[in-house]
Amino acid sequence: MALDEARFQTLADGTLDRLMAAAEDALGARAEVDLEGGVLTIAVAAGGRYVVNKHGPMRQLWLSSPVSGAWHFAWDEGAADWRSTRGTETLAEVLARDLAEATGAPVALD
Q1: Are 89 and 83 in contact (CB under 8 A)?
Q2: Is there a domain that residue 108 lies in?
Q3: For residue 39, is it left (φ>0), alpha (ψ between -120 and 50) or beta?
Q4: Which of 40, 41, 49, 89 has its CA 20 to 30 A from that of 33?
Q5: CA 107, CA 104: separation in Å to the nearest integer?
Q6: pLDDT by residue (tens digit) across 78-99?
Q7: CATH number of the structural domain spanning residue 43
Q8: Does residue 110 lie in a domain region?
């Protein structure tokens, strides 16, 4: 079942809020984390900017990562999570792995 606009917005906004809080907790002074207008930006002190944003027409969350490139995530109702459209990884898994690689420290976002 495809997400309607209201459910997409609710799920996407909740996910962005959770990722922002988790990134702030996990990264501390190693990154600047900002959520504005449905766009989560994480600028790592060591260099690199990660952007997670809502893509309403496709009902997806998109990640731009200097480590692994561009990703699209669609809501998986059965798993209750955002899964990659090109595999089984979740948004939190991909972002955490890339941030850990960039900072040299483990990062947990879920």
Answers
A1: yes
A2: no
A3: beta
A4: 89
A5: 9
A6: 999 999 999 999 999 999 999 9
A7: 3.30.920.10
A8: no
Domain span including residue 55: 5-103
Specify the pLDDT at position 105. Answer: 87
Band (1; pLDDT cuts 50, 70, 90)? low
The two tokens of residue 36 are 């504005």
pTM of the model: 0.94
In a domain, 36, yes or no: yes
What domain count does the chain have? 1
Beta strands, E only, 1-110 = 31-36, 39-44, 49-55, 60-65, 69-76, 81-84
Residue 46: predicted pLDDT: 85
Tokens of 26: 């996990």
Dist. CA 83–CA 71, nearest whole Å: 10
How many angstroms from the chain centroid is the CA of residue 93? Answer: 9
Give the SS3 label for residue 81: strand
Q: Is 36 helix (H, G, I), strand (E, B) or coil?
A: strand
Query: How many angstroms separate the CA atoms of 34 and 51, rounded?
Result: 10
